[in-house]
Structures are given as structure tokens and as C-alpha cells.
Design a protein that fits this description.
homotetramer; alpha+beta; 4-stranded antiparallel β-sheet; two-stranded antiparallel ribbon; 10 strands
Chain lengths: ~250, ~250, ~250, ~250
């Protein structure tokens, strides 16, 4: 899933076509979440995947709308309902009582989501060496450590438990002019919640508005939006993400 | 999800419209798996949900095709790939080594799926009192007890781990003329695998061809195809499923 | 572990010798927790285990001492330290942050233990059909259902996480004159905490002082004090516990 | 638990007294497993713990006794029974079916333990970066990665499931003249099984006889024999283990 999400396609100034070395046929399809997926059969040996594009961005930080309203479940559009369900890394059923105990007193809607992000951000300790592919939201809750995906999984789970549709996303986070970019650069995970009739960006890892997020894929959790899913051994040799600001004259 | 699956709609001799007492508006929509979902807001008090229909069935048991072929992952249609992924109740990642150890020596395709069903059927003990909403495939593997959904979850997980697309389904299982119906009747869970370009029925609980399965919903696991998903307290008072054979003159 | 605990041996008015039908040799030994364990090799066929005794009891309910003091870890006797550690059913490490968040504001010592009992008693729903041999304290925390042992496991885990030595116990609970005995009678599980230099009785399941507890065995959790531990198939056919008050003239 | 185990005390050529800088009172006691435990209250600031001793060793590798016999449970001494039970990191109950399936065909006794070590050694990938304090035997079984303690936890669990008493141990592993010592040196974990009336050393991590093991502590699992157990924040600054061969003239 190395393409920009269709919702940002209009902002692309050049196509973000995936290229491979050696060249192999790449099939592109749209999955059930509306993401663009590229699919290929790699030959034995080293494979280089890369793409390069320019995208128009507002330069504005993530919008903040403290009075964004939480719909009752009855009002929610049908297509948002699957983002209330448990998934591989988000055991909504196992953490629903905890969610109500922790966030039941917060005002519904935006303040409740913000309370969830504040809690996760404050209680979980970040560290790259904590990365573990099997860690679920419940594991994050008990272990209180993780990388960015772990923060989002726990926050997503709490939101769903409070009947707020929440989806896990991956994308680019250029972050120019706001804070020092993490070094080395990486793709990033954040999440979206459905309030007042649209999806809003939240990020329990950074927990403050950022500039330059470019959405790549949305899903129930990291299972659905892995940057690469390999069938067969595919050890990662080098991994490089570069996002630069290109100002218009 | 009380409707017959669209793939069987042509067999319906009368519409299988969901009715409620007291009457409340029922909205119908198709989810991302292609299932027909009915949605309603229940008022406080007792709610009765019922539907009634007649469906044409071949009367033939589940087809058996021992030479149904397992496609390589590269050959699989894109829309089947999500049925290789882990999900809430199917931790494919955690059981993949076990699957290879247990079933790696079985011939690919139909014989491998059958080996999986045989193993699950033989190793897991059925009992209604073992029902537990939080039991995952890994729990079934370690506890070795369960109800029908548990059998299918473990089998689905093993199939996915062997790169065979597998989906969890619910439906009616009338079973006239083959074996004594379970008493009382219930909806049933089974699963489907993708071999030789189509989906085939398997059932790790019963592990033999049955007559009269009527598909209602397909999904990644029980999360996606719950008969009812309630937001708010909705204790079940009475539950009744009746399937009768109506012979054509 | 069908004998009365040595701490109550002086109260026995007759020996509580374990008898078997058919008669088989029974070896008795004391385990590392100070419990009396009986050990035997059963022949194939039905085995009846029974004992019968009379014990002197104060008739007083469990003592309540709201100013019982929580020692610092440095002050604790060495032999109590193992009751601070995690064990099979009590994942102290996984619930320590939750314990501090829930009970950190309660006054140390007795009030904190009482706060733990109140929480567990209120949040967990009792039901015999919820019995499950694999349920750990973390499972109780997430599922919020269980039988008496589950209530105690969660309370024990929270106490340990707050540096209060806590041990799981089993025994007779006659309960004459206080409340209707559960029907049918059973052995019961409760727990003890170490405050002000001694062990005190708490019971997160009933959460009120009871009369007539007779201690049988203490341990880290249910693993250590199972009434029977069988090696080989040993299905339980009938199980009967009778405790009657015998008043002195 | 920085002292040599009492079973090796006769081999000490100088006392292995624990010293602290700054000097604080150190209390020593024996725990229920027979280990020597030192206990102290550290003041805020840096604390250095060290000890230094010389111990006589046979220089012989771990004994191998392929005909060491597995006692029936009925024959086992009472004090070995607790090493058949589940514990925090060894969920014997959850892995007992798997153990029987994998090792039921191996000859009882030494060959069965060796089969267990071979399996764990072959299936689990070692890596220091896989270290995780919450990983249980079931996690090792599903994740197939770990550090030395994880290898032993899984092997111990499988042995117990096959009714072979098994205990987890920590100690020094000097290993001079047999294989390159790991760099930097560390304490090591291995395990012991009870066969033919005594405890034998096995090591699923290295899976071959080694020279110069010096036992420090035995227990049910890593919970019981942690080198240090701290109550309060105690970040480790530097950690150094040096074992040198001192030949007699």
C-alpha cells in the first residue's frame, strides 16, 4: 500500500506510480476500504520498490473542532458501522468496561476523543525497541509501552468502545515547520474518528496537530493497512522515507 | 443479519423480509462483504424479530471435489486476499508455524483443507456449555473445547496460515434426511475456502457433507456475521429457528 | 487438599482423616505453603473420597480492623514476600498500572484492601455457568464475569500490585445464622492479606464478614490449593459438601 | 539472588558475600525453594552491588544419561510435585495437548526431555532484542522467538505437561574451553528435570553439554529466581558478569 489514498489523489501534481527494480508487472486494485493496493510477484534476489511524487498540501495543521458532535449509533451512516467492531489488534469487547470507566464522564464527541488521546499519550511510553508485531490494544493497555501503531490501536479501541467509529490509518507525516522530524523518517500511523458527519484526524502518539499528513490507507487496524504484506520470506534490507517541502514560486 | 445471502436470493420463492413486533422502521443495506444487513432502533420493552420464507434447494449434500486445486497466492483474485489476513478471532500470525507443522505434509488444496477439518473435528470437544464470546482460534487450540463457531474459527485460521483463503459463514442448516437435527434448532456456522476458482463449503464441527445449508452471511470471522449486533442492553428472551422441508408436488 | 489447615488443627474435636472407598493407601505430606496434602493412587473404577469431623469455632464473623496497617515492603517478613509475586492466575505485572490508577488514592492498609474488594465485588458478575479453569485475573478484569475463585484472583492481584501480600485460600464456609448458604453447598475460596503483622480474611465475592470459615489450604493462587489434582482422567461424578452447626450443651 | 545455591556451597573456596556501595545492611534468608536471598533497602542514588568468589568445579560438561528413567507420578517424591504445576510463565494447562501431540511418541525419560530440547532449540529463534518481560511459554510457542529464559520456559512447560518435574534455574555459565563465551557475559538460565531420582541439567537454548555451570537459584519459573526484584524504580545502569578459570597449581 505505497500509494496516496484516493481522497488525496486530486492533490497529486505527478502520479505516484510504484516502480520496481528489477522491473516486474505490478497490478493495482482497490480493496474493500477504498485503498489503492499494488501487487506483484518478486523474483528471488533483491527487489527495490520506490515511488516519487509531489502533492499539494494546505500547510495547515490538523483541524481542531472541539464542538464536533458524536452521533448516536442510530444516526451513524451504515458504512461507518464496521469501524465500531473489534478487529485483530483492537479487542473492543475486552476493553469496553475499562473505556466506560475511564471516559464515561468526558463530554461526548470531540472532548471524549481528546480525553482518550490524552490518556493514551500520557500512560504509554514510546520506544522503537518496543516494536512487536503481535501486540494488541489489550497488550498496550497492560504493558504501557509501544511504537506509534500501538498508541493508535489502543485509542481506536477505546473510541469504538464508546461507540465512536474509529479507523486506523497510515501515511506520510512530513511535519515541516512544526517539529523536528523523527530521524530517520518513516511512514507514520494515526487514526480518524467520525464526528459531525465526517472523519477527523487524531494521533495519540504525538497528541498535537501536525502539518503535512498525507493519507495512504485506512482500515480497521494495522492488519488492513500494512505498507507491505509478503507471502514468502522477504527480509527488509533498507528502508527510506523522504518528505521535503517544495514551495511554489 | 437475518436475511438470506444475495448469492441465494434467486432461490427464494417468497421474500425473506424481516418483520418486527412492535413494528419499527427497518433499514436494509449491503455491507462490504456483500451481506444484507437490517438495521433498526428498538424501543424499550420486548421486541420480536421474525421472518419466514421458502427457498428452493437442490437437496444435494455439500459438494466434494478432492482434486480442487489450491492456487498460488500470485494467482488468487484480489478480492480473496482479505480472507488470508488475521482477524479478531483468527490470529493467523500466532498459529502459522503450528499450521505448517501440522498440515505442511498434506497435499495442497482440497486434501489439506480436509486434513485441517479432520484435525479440528477430532481434537476439539463440542459442548454448548463451552460457549464463550471471547474465545479466539488460539484459545480453541489451547483449550480444545467449543461450540460450532469455535471449530470454524480454528479451521479458518489454519487454512489462512496455509495461504488458502477462508471465510467464516452463518446460515440455516436444515439437514433433513441426513442426520438428526440438533435440538433445539439454531443457526449454524461453517466456513468456505477458495479452491479451483470458487468457494467451497467445509464444516469442521460436523465434518461431513450435509444437506440444505442456506447461506446468510460471510465474513472474516464471527465479528462480521453476528446474527444480531446490539448497541445497548438487549438480553435475548427466546430464540427459535425452524426449518422444514416443503416438497414440491 | 481435603484436610483442615494446620493453623486450625487445635480446634478439631475429631481427626479429619481422609477415607477412601475402596480403601487405598493414603500418604500425607506438608507442602511448601504449610498445607496438609493427601496423596493416593486410585485404581480404575469409581473412587469415593470422604472425611468427617467436628471443629470448634468462635461463631464470630470475620474480624474487621479498619486501622490495620500496611507495612512498607522493607518491613515485611521474608516469608510474606512470595505473596507479592505474579503467579499462574495472578498476572501482577500486567495489572499493576491499573491497580495504581484505581486504588492509588485509597488510604493504605485496610481501606485500600476494602476498596479493592468493593470494586471487584461491584464490577464482576457472579454465575456458576461462567466457571472456566483457564480464566486468569486479567481475564476477570476484561470479561467481568466469574465464580468465587475469579473474584479472589483479581482482588489478590490488585493487592499484590499495591505491595500488600495476598494469598488465595480455600476452605469450608458454613455461614450459619448470617445468610442463606448457597445451594448446593460447596467449598469456597477467599483470600488473606498481611496487615499489622498478621493475615486477615477478605472475600471479594461476598464482600461482607461471614461466620464459620474453616481454612483448608493457602497458596499463591488456585493452582496451589486445588481440592484435587489428578494425573490421568478423573471425571467427577458426585460432589457433596455438608457443614452443620453442632452446638455445645 | 546473587549467591551461589546451597547445593554448591561446599565448593566455594571463599565466601560469596554480597557487598554494596554505599554500604547498607543486607539481610539474608532462605526462600521456600531453598535459595539464598539477600535483601536490602537502597537509599536514593546509585547503588553498586557486587560479589567475588572462587568455586571448585569438576571441569566436566553436563552429565548425559540417556537411560535416566522417568518415574510414574505415583513414584515421585512429594517435594517434586510442585514442579509439575503451571506457573506465571509456564501455562502447563494450555500446552498439555500440544506436548502430548509433539512428544507422546518419544521414549519416556531422558529421550523425551531431549526431544523437547531439540524441538525448542530448533523452532525458536534467539535474539537479545526479542527480550520481553511478559512473554510466557505460550507466547514463545506462538511467536517462536526469545532469549534464553524463553527457551527454558517453553521446555519446562512441555516437560511438566509430560509429567516430568522440571524447574527453571539461573546461574553462572563460564564455559571456558568449550565454546566462545557470549560477549558480554551474563548470568544464564537453564533448567533441570527430575529423572532416576535426581535433578539433571538441560538447556534448550544451547542444547549441548556445557562446562562450568554454577547454580544460583531454582524455582518454578523466572518469577521465582529473578537476579533482582525491586520495589520502586531501580533502573539498571551497568551490569557486568565475569567468570574466569583459575587453575590449581
Amino acid at each position: 500500500m505505497l500509494h496516496v489514498h484516493p481522497s488525496r489523489a486530486a492533490d497529486l501534481r505527478e502520479p505516484d506510480q510504484l516502480r520496481t527494480e528489477p522491473a516486474v508487472p505490478v497490478e493495482t486494485y482497490e480493496d474493500s476500504f477504498g485503498n489503492i493496493c499494488a501487487r506483484l510477484v518478486a523474483q528471488p534476489g533483491t527487489l527495490r520498490l520506490h515511488n516519487l511524487t509531489t502533492i499539494e498540501d494546505s500547510g495547515q495543521p490538523d483541524p481542531v473542532m472541539p464542538d464536533a458532535r458524536q452521533a448516536s449509533v442510530a444516526e451513524l451512516p451504515a458504512e461507518t458501522l464496521r469501524y465500531l467492531m473489534p478487529s485483530r489488534y483492537c479487542e473492543v469487547d475486552l476493553l469496553s468496561n475499562t473505556a466506560v470507566e475511564l471516559f464515561g464522564a468526558a463530554a461526548p464527541g470531540w472532548p471524549r476523543v481528546q480525553a482518550i488521546c490524552d490518556w493514551v499519550h500520557q500512560k504509554v511510553t514510546f520506544g522503537y525497541h518496543y516494536a512487536r508485531p503481535t501486540r494488541t490494544a489489550l497488550d498496550v493497555y497492560t504493558e504501557r509501552v509501544g511504537v506509534c501503531r500501538d498508541f493508535q490501536h489502543l485509542a481506536v479501541t477505546f473510541c469504538r468502545a464508546m461507540n465512536i467509529p474509529a479507523r486506523y490509518v497510515t501515511g506520510y507525516l512530513g511535519d515541516i515547520g512544526v517539529a523536528a522530524a523523527p530521524s530517520p523518517m518513516d511512514f507514520s500511523a494515526w487514526f480518524q474518528v467520525y464526528l459531525s458527519g465526517r472523519w477527523w484526524t487524531f494521533d495519540a502518539r504525538h497528541n498535537k496537530p501536525r502539518i503535512g499528513r498525507v493519507l495512504m490507507a485506512v482500515g480497521r487496524d494495522a492488519t488492513d493497512v500494512a505498507i507491505t504484506t509478503s507471502f514468502g520470506a522477504a527480509p527488509l534490507t533498507i528502508f527510506n522515507v523522504i518528505t521535503d517541502e517544495v514551495r511554489r514560486d
